[in-house]
Design a protein that fits this description.
Radius of gyration of chain A: 37 Å
Order of helices and strands of chain B: HHEHEEHEEHHEHEHEEHEH
Radius of gyration of chain B: 21 Å
Largest interface: A-B, 23 and 35 residues
Strand content of chain B: 15-25%
Number of strands of chain B: 10
Helix content of chain B: 40-55%
Strand order of the largest sheet of chain B: 5-4-3-6-7-10
Structural class of chain A: alpha/beta
Number of helices of chain A: 16
Distance between the termini of chain A: 47 Å
Number of strands of chain A: 36
Strand content of chain A: 25-35%
Low-confidence stretches of chain B: 1-16, 44-53
Oligomer: heterodimer
Helix content of chain A: 25-40%
Largest sheet of chain B: 6 strands, mixed
Distance between the termini of chain B: 18 Å
Strand order of the largest sheet of chain A: 19-18-20-21-28-27-26-23-24
Shape of chain B: elongated
Structural class of chain B: alpha/beta
Shape of chain A: extended
Mean pLDDT of chain A: 82
């Protein structure tokens, strides 16, 4: 016999305990007054010790119970695990690949998948080992390789399909990796899924599989039935004040054998606001766009829910959710002496009604320094000298986390910047003026991977590259700064620098047509907006997120960022102050943010999440991945036939399970500890009965 | 057992004599009355209720006799003082010896040996007084504690009961000196009832009994024992403390039990043997048993003494 945890055998020293108790009790004998000791003779000490064994059975039972418990904790093995290998001759290694994405909720797909998994597990022979990979748009291992198939079956039975999308590729890769350590033999992947076509993401194109792996597929989809869903719900402001919105919905439907006229109900804050029917013609796969009459946005936090009234086998995708309230906007202060300098910039920043920037234009001397803290970003556009108080307030503003964008111009001089020079990414030098044609400088370097250019395509970069700069300030970059863009002669055009908790950007040319022609390019508008957003670390919140998205909580409400800041300095628990309630009503525990990491939440259900922070409450809409409603599924065998087979392990020695792993696996199957604990309980029961009986006799 | 008093079974059901019930009665006289009346009501008939006036004998006047009882006619004839005695007046001196040593305080149940001995002594005194016997009481422990000479007056019983009532277990036992001193004061033969647990060396106890017996007294020795003293059924290891000597002994009762019981039995047997040889009644009373047995023994002994 061997033990999994032999060190726990030290616990057998506990057997001394009953004997010690006996000795201690002997020393503290009960004091009894007796009429006369004239007939009592002194009992020798040896006899006293013998006397303890008056109930030897009790003592033996107690010792036996302790011994059994110690042995149970030490986890005994009956057979030498080194003699019988787990993956020895005849032992197979399997991976059960189980799809639990949202589409598996269609009808009884998931129940069928579970039944199929159980059937596979029941067919396993002793010595086979199985691991389960459960996947949707993420993958996870359900059990350890040592787990008994019965336990694996219980784990699978406890699963429920989620609301996430599907990505077959990573799951297949993980299954293959799990089997990578398998020794000789034919590792097997048993794949149970509806094999949704939309689950093959672009990354799956380069998928290949080890030639040794035997891949078996078990389609869980039965004959497809009609499925209607809301593919997209769009809410757009109709005017600049965003007091009225236009609502558009995309209806998708499949396997519709006859025409239908289902009702569409648009609810605002839980009350029906618009109701209309939509005519759907019979089709195997089609979409329909539905526009609702514009409606006024109620004050305060408002929500919209669209319900497509039709009973199909996947009812959850007949709903779409959205926030009706305008998303938080970035408060931006544009400072400059002359309004004409802001003409292009201001228009670029406030071009669309749903712009995420809320821009205020002011002259530097007219803005009270204390007001700066109410803005998230400040733009100094061709500013001459600043009042000293404003300069100090700006430095404090940036140090505290604000974003500053300084744009050069004819009136910008190093001397006029004063103390502001300390936080800039570069020291301003002389102004460069192109003497004539051919002397202007195009962009020579552009960091295309910089976050400012995240949404730009190659064609956009060409517009940048084709823009010439006739005038700009030469600068001397300071330590800690980074050049984002530079001109052909090497002069930096756009620099950034971290200062305190804030960020400062310096554009060494102007953003009007005097020094360059960039305002005439199509990239000017997004470039200006992205610069401001980047400087202020602002990410616009969408009206609705998708299930599976990870949401930074501080981005949901600008006030919450300050609350988070207060929490981190007060040392109070984050989870006690912030409450998140999922659409299903369950409260989601939050973890305290660590260091710079802000707490975030992964959305797992469709509907409205409620966030409560102190006195404020925000709602967040989460929608299903519309691709999950597309139930088209090609024959998996056809796909697998095209899957390239490669020799993964030429010359590589197969990984043998370690001795510890084998011991664990063997012990896990035998479960001897369980029987030992049961035996200890029985012994203790008998001991209790006997002890009670003795005690009763003595009392009598 | 047959006597003039009729046939009395030792198992006569006397519900009033249960010691545990008596312990609830605080008034000792009431206890004694309850016991005795209960006992008498259990008898078939009683020859002791009448008062005989038949002449019995003359005896020489001794100091202390009532001078009114001197037969002046005999004095005229013989010039000597004689007292005329009648049958009904041949009352017996009953001397109750109550052991109040420390060991008498032991109890394992609701009644201690001391309490039981008090009830028993009081009952005997009450009963004897009812029989027109003169009753005296001596309490002793390491020495004589209290002494009340035998008298027949009704008020005497109150004093006697009071003395019994205030008797408390105290210190060690010594049979030798106190009882020897007592024996010297007894001038008239009678019945001596020794109520004790007899936790003293056998020789000392027997010497005292022998002394009373040699004076011509009828002696009843009543040994009071607690049930636990007779069974010694302690369970776990105990540290025993002698109630008289305060000697301590850590012991395993299970192992010591056999020795203890043998010692007790041997002690009792020695006393029983000598009592038998001396014609002394030896009675062992367990504190859980009714008191009537002791009264019955007293009654039969008194019959013999007449």
């Amino acid at each position: 016999m061997q033990f999994l945890n032999p060190l726990f055998l030290i616990g057998s020293l506990a057997l001394i305990a009953p004997i010690l108790v006996h000795l201690v009790r002997r020393e503290s004998s009960r004091r009894v007054l007796f009429s006369s000791l004239m007939f009592v003779r002194r009992t020798p000490k040896a006899s006293l010790r013998k006397q303890r064994l008056r109930h030897p059975l009790l003592l033996l039972l107690r010792l036996a119970a302790l011994l059994l418990l110690v042995l149970a904790i030490a986890r005994p093995l009956l057979t030498d695990p080194d003699a019988v290998g787990l993956t020895g001759s005849g032992g197979r290694s399997l991976v059960l690949l189980l799809d639990d994405s949202f589409s598996m909720r269609f009808g009884d797909r998931f129940e069928r998948a579970q039944a199929q998994a159980r059937a596979i597990l029941e067919g396993l022979a002793p010595g086979d080992r199985v691991q389960t990979v459960v996947y949707s748009d993420s993958t996870r291992l359900l059990n350890r390789p040592e787990a008994h198939p019965r336990e694996v079956g219980k784990l699978i039975d406890a699963l429920e399909p989620g609301f996430s999308g599907t990505d077959h590729g990573p799951a297949l890769r993980l299954a293959e990796q799990v089997l990578a350590g398998t020794p000789e033999g034919s590792p097997e992947i048993h794949w149970i899924s509806d094999f949704q076509e939309s689950g093959w993401q672009p990354g799956s194109a380069h998928l290949s599989i080890d030639e040794r792996v035997e891949l078996r597929t078990y389609p869980a989809a039965q004959a497809p039935g009609p499925n209607l869903s809301i593919g997209r719900l769009t809410i757009e402001p109709e005017n600049r004040s965003a007091s009225r919105v236009a609502v558009t919905a995309e209806i998708r439907y499949q396997h519709l054998r006859q025409s239908l006229d289902p009702a569409l109900v648009l609810e605002i804050n839980g009350q029906p606001a618009r109701n209309r029917t939509v005519h759907l013609k019979a089709a195997a796969n089609d979409t329909r766009l539905v526009r609702f009459e514009s409606l006024a946005v109620p004050r305060g936090e408002s929500t919209a829910r669209l319900h497509l009234r039709f009973e199909d086998a996947l009812p959850e995708d007949n709903f779409a959710y959205s926030s009706l309230s305008p998303p938080p906007r970035l408060k931006t202060l544009l400072l400059g002496t002359h309004r004409r300098d802001h003409y292009y910039l201001n228009r670029a920043l406030t071009a669309s009604p749903d712009s995420s920037l809320d821009v205020t234009v002011a002259e530097p001397g007219r803005i009270p320094p204390a007001e700066l803290s109410s803005y998230a970003a400040v733009i100094l556009n061709n500013c001459p000298s600043l009042p000293e108080a404003t300069t100090s307030a700006l430095i404090h503003f940036v140090e505290s986390g604000g974003g500053l964008l300084l744009i050069s111009g004819p009136q910008t001089h190093a001397e006029s910047l004063g103390g502001l020079q300390e936080i800039l990414p570069a020291k301003l030098l002389k102004r460069y003026r192109a003497a004539g044609r051919g002397q202007d400088q195009p962009i020579g370097l552009l960091q295309k991977r910089h976050p400012i250019f995240n949404d730009f395509e190659e064609v956009h970069f060409s517009y940048f590259m084709g823009t010439a700069y006739t005038d700009f300030h030469r600068v001397e970059p300071l330590a800690g700064s980074q050049v984002v863009a530079a001109l052909q002669d090497g002069s930096p055009l756009l620099l950034e620098r971290q200062s305190g908790k804030g960020r400062v950007l310096l554009f060494t040319s102007s953003l009007d047509r005097n020094w360059n022609q960039l305002p005439l390019k199509s990239v000017f508008l997004p470039f200006c907006q992205e610069m401001v957003r980047y400087a202020a670390r602002f990410r616009p919140s969408p009206r609705a997120y998708g299930v599976g998205d990870r949401v930074g909580l501080q981005s949901l409400n600008p006030q919450w960022a300050k609350a988070l800041e207060t929490l981190s300095t007060s040392g109070r628990s984050f989870a006690h102050t912030w409450t998140v309630v999922a659409p299903s009503g369950r409260e989601i525990p939050l973890e305290d943010p660590v260091g710079e990491d802000r707490s975030s939440l992964t959305l797992t259900e469709p509907g409205f999440y409620r966030f409560r922070v102190q006195e404020t409450e925000n709602l967040l809409a989460a929608n299903l991945d519309s691709r999950e409603s597309d139930l088209r599924a090609p024959d998996p065998e056809q796909f697998l036939a095209q899957l390239p087979r490669v020799a993964r392990r030429e010359g590589a020695a197969p990984r043998q399970p370690t001795s510890v792993e084998r011991r664990h696996a063997l012990e896990n199957r035998q479960h001897l500890w369980w029987y030992l604990v049961l035996a200890a309980c029985l012994v203790l029961l008998v001991e209790s009965l006997l002890a009670n009986r003795y005690s009763y006799n003595v009392t009598e | 057992m047959t006597s003039r008093a009729g046939t009395v079974s030792e198992h006569t059901p006397l519900r009033f004599l249960d010691p545990a019930v008596l312990a609830r009665i605080s008034n000792l006289e009431l206890v004694a009355r309850t016991v005795v009346e209960g006992f008498i009501s259990g008898l078939h008939r009683s020859p002791y209720l009448g008062f005989s006036v038949d002449f019995a004998q003359y005896r020489q006047y001794i100091e202390g006799d009532d001078i009114r009882q001197i037969d002046w006619k005999v004095y005229a004839r013989s010039d000597r003082h004689y007292v005329k005695q009648h049958e009904g007046e041949t009352s017996t001196n009953v001397t109750l010896l109550l052991d109040i040593s420390g060991s008498m305080a032991y109890r394992s149940g609701s009644v201690s040996k001391m309490e039981y001995a008090r009830y028993l002594t009081a009952s005997l005194a009450f009963f004897a007084q009812r029989q027109r016997d003169r009753v005296g009481l001596t309490t002793f422990a390491a020495g004589l504690v209290d002494q009340l000479p035998p008298r027949c007056r009704r008020e005497h019983l109150s004093s006697l009961l009071h003395l019994i009532d205030k008797a408390r277990a105290d210190a060690g036992t010594a049979f030798g000196k106190p009882l020897q001193a007592l024996a010297e004061t007894i001038r008239r033969r009678g019945i001596v009832v020794l109520v004790s647990d007899l936790h003293a060396p056998t020789g000392e106890v027997l010497e005292s009994i022998r002394q009373f017996r040699f004076q011509g007294n009828d002696v009843i020795v009543i040994q009071i024992l607690d049930p636990r003293e007779q069974r010694f059924d302690f369970s776990d290891s105990v540290q025993m403390v002698d109630m008289e000597t305060r000697r301590q002994l850590v012991m395993d009762p299970a192992l010591a039990r056999a020795d203890y019981l043998a010692g007790l039995e041997s002690h009792q047997q020695e006393i029983r043997n000598l009592c038998g040889a001396l014609g002394v009644d030896f009675l062992v009373m367990e504190t859980s048993r009714p008191l009537d047995l002791a009264l019955y023994r007293y009654l039969s002994t008194r019959q013999k003494s007449r």
